[in-house]
Amino acid sequence: MDLEADLRYLASLPSHVLKNDHVKKFFSTSSPTQQLQSPSPGNPSLSKVGTMMGVSGR
């Protein structure tokens, strides 16, 4: 997992997406250590944020 690329992706998100209550709740409940221990490839939080972006972008 490339953490630097993940952080760059998060930094590129518009502020209204990061201020979304669902996004805030997700990031407040998940800690970085849990994500690092995840055996699956990729970062599950990014796909979740991407899904929410698609929904909130309409």
Automatic annotation (TrEMBL):
<feature type="region of interest" description="Disordered">
    <location>
        <begin position="28"/>
        <end position="58"/>
    </location>
</feature>
<protein>
    <submittedName>
        <fullName>Zinc finger CCHC domain-containing protein 14</fullName>
    </submittedName>
</protein>
<dbReference type="GO" id="GO:0035091">
    <property type="term" value="F:phosphatidylinositol binding"/>
</dbReference>
<feature type="compositionally biased region" description="Low complexity">
    <location>
        <begin position="28"/>
        <end position="40"/>
    </location>
</feature>
<dbReference type="InterPro" id="IPR036871">
    <property type="entry name" value="PX_dom_sf"/>
</dbReference>
<dbReference type="InterPro" id="IPR042344">
    <property type="entry name" value="ZCCHC14"/>
</dbReference>
